Amino acid sequence: MTMKGLINGLALVAILALAQTSLLAQELVHAMVGTTAGSDPTTGSITLQLADRTSASFDSKPDLSTHIAFDKTLRKESATVNELPKGTTHVIVYYYGLSPAIVVAVKDLGKKIESVTGTITSIDETDQSITIQPETGQLATCYVSNETTVETPYGAVDGTKYSVQKGEKVSAVCTNEAGKEIAQFIQPLND
What we know:
The protein is mostly beta strands. It has helices at about 5-25, 70-75; strands at about 25-30, 30-40, 45-50, 55-60, 70, 90-95, 100-110, 115-125, 130-135, 140-145, 150, 155-160, 170-175, 180-190. The protein folds into 2 domains: about 25-110, CATH 2.40.50; about 115-190, CATH 2.40.50.320. It is about 15% helix and about 45% strand. The protein is globular, with a radius of gyration of 20 Å.
């Protein structure tokens, strides 16, 4: 091997190592749904009351050098905390990090939502819907689209990018639009 070949090979290894490091430094954007318990438009922070009656707070001090992986469709359908209409009650918060959790964007779900937790009993790919059997109560059919947020271990993705499975246990938050329950948020649950 010539000296020029060795130098070119080492340069390629260095470039690949740097590229891999920058990929590892990317923060995944996750999602959480809840009722607004408070927000500060001056700082962009928000606090949610969660279904289990605990709360979660999110700061809005992103490090501009932080690279984030945020689904393009979900980003397009969301806004900043400052853009939330006054009196907003139910929201999805898109965030990264844990301590502190940094809010990236929010999605207003309006004032009336339906929550259901149970097992998926059927999937209709033509209708783009899933039917959920709660432990008690009636079956719930939720329609899934690219505007549906699905929280996964690998970040929040739009509903068309996640394949639910029959028998999977999920928690879903839906809004009623023209008589249909539209899934706004789905979170697969581990047993």
